Amino acid sequence: MSIIQTIRDKAAWIIIGAIALALIAFIVQDAFSGRSGGLFSGQSTTLGKINGTKVEATEFDRRLSAAEANYAQAGQPVDEQFRQQIRESLWNEYVEKAVLDKEMDKLGFVISDKEKGDILYGPNPPQQLRQQFTNPETGVYDAQAAYQAIRGLKKKSPEYNNFWGEFVPALEKQRAREKFVGMISKSYYVPKWLIEKRNANNSQVASISYVSVPYTSIPDSTIKITDDEVRKYIQDRKKAFEQEQVRGIEYVLFDAAPSAADSAAVREHVEKLKDSFATATDIKGFLLRENSQTPYYESNISRKEIKIANIDTIVKTPVGGVYGPYLDGGSYTLARMVSVKQWPDTVKVRHILVATHQRDQRTGELTPVRYDTTAKRIVDSVDLAIKGGANFDTLCLKYSDDGTKSTGGIYDGVVTGRMTTAFNDFIFGNPVGSKGVVKTEYGYHYVEVLSHKGSSPAYNIAYFSEPVYPSDLTTNTAQQAAASFAAESRNRQQFEDNVKKKNLTKFNAYDIAPLANSIPGVGVNRELVRWMYNEAKVGDVAAQPFFIGDKYVVPVLVNAYEKGLMPVERARPLVEYKIRNEKKAQQIAQKVGNAPASLDAVAKATNQPVQQLDSVQFAMGYIPAVGNELKLIGASFNKNYQTKVSDPITGESGVYYIKVNNISALPNAPLDIKLQQQMAAQQFQRSSYLVIETLKKTADIKDNRYKFY
To answer: Rg of the chain's alpha carbons, rounded to an integer?
Structure first.
């Protein structure tokens, strides 16, 4: 198999491993240029802009489809939630490319031919090359073999163009990025004096006397907060109140989950099958015929490996008996005890697999790889050779199709129920030293049992299960109720009125981002988010309910905030208490007056006691019996307050007046070079993220993805 074919077959590693998902845009760009179709049917629609450069929806969709195909080929299920993650990674690639390319071009970053060779043949090659050209016996990457295979690619062939035109440029991009981030990271330095200063500060201890005047001493009802005050608070702290685009809904739910009547009907049906199940001679055929949702594992499993409901009761059922029906994970189940055997807890075996089929990682289906007669002939020759004294490991390495071929075909610590039934029966049901050929759906196994450990009962239990689904009556009733509510509630006022009239419970989900994939309390439903952004205006009620999980949802859009400074009505719940506390602090300060002569005078003015703290440490973030009062901790080490009462200190829970009695120091720990190195390493680790995020903040990004996905 050529190297390019291997790269194609395992293309998801380009994203997952060596290069990371972000680079898929580079990898597949040229390969998919010119292909039409997809979500946008060839229409040139702008998905977004980054520093003035358009991102076309058709191009983005082609790359997205390629990434999804790579994951599917690697056996990764691509559901809507995972698809959202891929979209996010791909978009981040566009953004990072825009901001990084500009900086790297200015600095003149290039990848030389020597570096290119190091990428492919050096000590850290791409995962794809490492996998294909690592010697299975030594575990060492064979760079020379990789070099010869790459040299053997024919010029202008699809393999050559893909390798040098897509794969290698992607690796070069990644190396350039690593060099750029590495250059920035190397500029971080933690000086010796900073460690010494930190040690000195953290060793300080103060003793203070203080008066605490809690904000609760002034009733909230006496303090009024105006919109202008909230607005000024926001304006003075603009950075803290910058908001992204968000929407918010309120909604009601109409439950379409199975009713008690639905559950009872299923239980009754399962109960009627109990006698037939108990007397069935062809258990597997019975389960298939009656459409059981639980497949039959036709071998025994030890008690400790059975992880199902009611197992302690089930194992007490006599052989031939049936336990149930009982409810297990939303299904009514019958459990028939087929047999009980005393088997080892674990076994160690070695085997040689001559495969006839292999499982397709994408579809889960078995696909043929060798004729049955051919496989049987090979395994018989292996059996004959071993009986004649041939070396097992040599034969295993030569003939086995199993992943354990390079380690002698050994499986150690095998527990019941993990292997196919025939394999399970052989290795647990035969004594140590047993050898033989076992036929499974994968092919022919030459098996030798090496050792057993432990012993306990193993049970062969057949399960018939029927899930409890909602009946048509249940579903239709919920759907009609939801549709009726939506039809009668065409605006927010009608929505509110009908909630009260019908005695429904109203829920809410605020701060939903444009690209959110799920709604808190509701579940995954991208269509509802798109309705919020692309169709609805504030006050609109959805014309048709959304079916999510087992519920019908009727939402009303209650807010729509755009990117920018947070408006007063949204900021008020966040800042109102802070403004109120500021006003209370002013009243407390006025009551005490300027420059109080003593803490006793403060105590008299506020009707609060003078208290003592003897061990306030500078390194503390929390004061026992006081709380998280960082301003109080800082003021405790102000030497000016040794001779006079402090100015009012506005804390988190009240206003403090203090007098510093003493400042001392604990024995100062010696300079710890490891701490200096640790701090530098932490800065280095954060640098990659910080560099990219800082550059993103300087970019002009217009993201319209929510209009398309």
So the answer is: 35
Q: Cis peptide leading into 667, omega within 30 of 0? A: no
Q: What is the pLDDT of residue 655?
A: 97
Residue 253 · residue 506 · CB < 8 Å: no
- Mode of pairing for the β-strands spanning 301-302 and 701-703: unpaired
CA angle 155/156/161 to nearest 5° reads: 100
Q: What single string gives the DSSP state of each residue in 584-609?
A: HHHHHHHHH-SS-S-HHHHHHHHT--
State the Cα–Cα distance between residues 221 and 85, nearest whole angstrom: 47
Segment 608-638, tens digit of pLDDT = 999 999 989 888 888 888 989 999 999 999 9
Q: Mean pLDDT, the chain, as a whole number?
A: 87
Q: How many CB atoms lie within 10 A of CB 303?
A: 16
Domain 346-453 has CATH 3.30.230.20: no
- Residue 252: name the closest of 514, 501, 472, 559 by CA: 501
Question: How many C-beta atoms surround the C-beta of residue 343 within 10 A?
Answer: 23
What distance, in Å, lies between the first and last C-alpha atoms of the chain? Answer: 38
Nearest-5° Cα angle at 50, 102 to 563: 130
Instruction: Evaluate whether 281 touches 394 at the Cβ level (below 8 Å).
Output: no
CA distance 121 to 326: 61
Q: Identify the band that residue 136 occupies on the pLDDT scale cut at 50, 70 and 90.
A: low
Mind listing the pLDDT tens digit for each residue in 551-593?
999 999 999 999 999 999 999 999 999 999 999 999 999 999 9
What is the layout of strands, in order, in the sheet containing 53-56? 53-56, 46-50, 701-703
Q: How many CB atoms lie within 10 A of CB 566?
A: 18
